[in-house]
Amino acid sequence: MPHAQAQAIKEFIVEEFLPDMPARDLADHDDLLEGGVIDSLGLLKVIAWLEDRYDINTDEVDLDPESFKSVAAIEAFIADASRTRAEAA
User: Residue 74: which residues within 8 A CB-CB, separation 6 or more?
Assistant: First the structure.
């Protein structure tokens, strides 16, 4: 599952922000914020996608921009948000 999750994140980022780049060229630890791939409006788009795709309630989690700086960071954010949701249930 983690590989599929990383692939889904990469495909979303490439589709929305890097349309001329193959998803396979985006590394898990590429800095999307420092690299200018995702800006503040892009962060909102990523958050909305995560809420929809992974049923994450962002009211229950910390929205630190560092959580969205790379594919790996987004995966960790999803895992943390899922844990928070499970603990609240």
Answer: 9, 46, 50, 67, 68
Residue 22 has pLDDT above 60, yes or no: yes
CB 81 within 8 A of CB 54: yes
Task: Note the pLDDT of residue 67.
Answer: 95
What 8-state DSSP symbol labels residue 37?
A: S
Q: Which phi and psi angles does 18 have, rounded to 5°?
A: -135, 60
CATH architecture of 3-87: Orthogonal Bundle (1.10)
The pLDDT tens digits for 26-43 are 999 999 999 999 999 999
Cα–Cα distance, 54 to 30 (Å, whole number): 22
Q: Are 11 and 22 in contact (CB under 8 A)?
A: no
